[in-house]
Amino acid sequence: MKTRYTTLDILRALSIITMIIYHILWDLVNAFDVDLPWFYSETADAIQMAIRWSFILISGFCWSLGNRQIRRGIIVLLASV
Q1: What per-residue confidence (pLDDT) applies to 3?
Q2: DSSP letter (8 states) at residue 79
Q3: I need a labelling partner for 28 at 20 to 30 A (CA). Which of 1, 48, 53, 70 fits?
Q4: Contact assessment for residue 36 and residue 25, using Cβ atoms and an 8 Å cutoff
């Protein structure tokens, strides 16, 4: 049985949830023309950057904890095309 890192799981979940919320807001503003002036503020840019970097850093940290990294990397790469 593998050991789970609870803190890492919580951070990963929060990162994914915040990214989903950001993309819902992005869709509202850009696809459905909802007026959210806050979305284009410096604060929103900082939040967007924090979400992006947290997702990248957590994903990078988790990379070394998994098995079959090359196979998983190829699958993610193919899914992004």
Answers
A1: 81
A2: H
A3: 53
A4: yes
Non-local (6+) Cβ contacts of 51 within 8 A are 15, 18, 19, 22
CA-nearest of 67, 26, 79, 64 to 48 is 26
DSSP string, 13-56: HHHHHHHHHHHHHHHHHHTS----GGGGSHHHHHHHHHHHHHHH
Residues 1-55 pLDDT 10s? 678 889 999 999 999 999 999 999 999 999 999 999 999 999 999 999 999 999 8
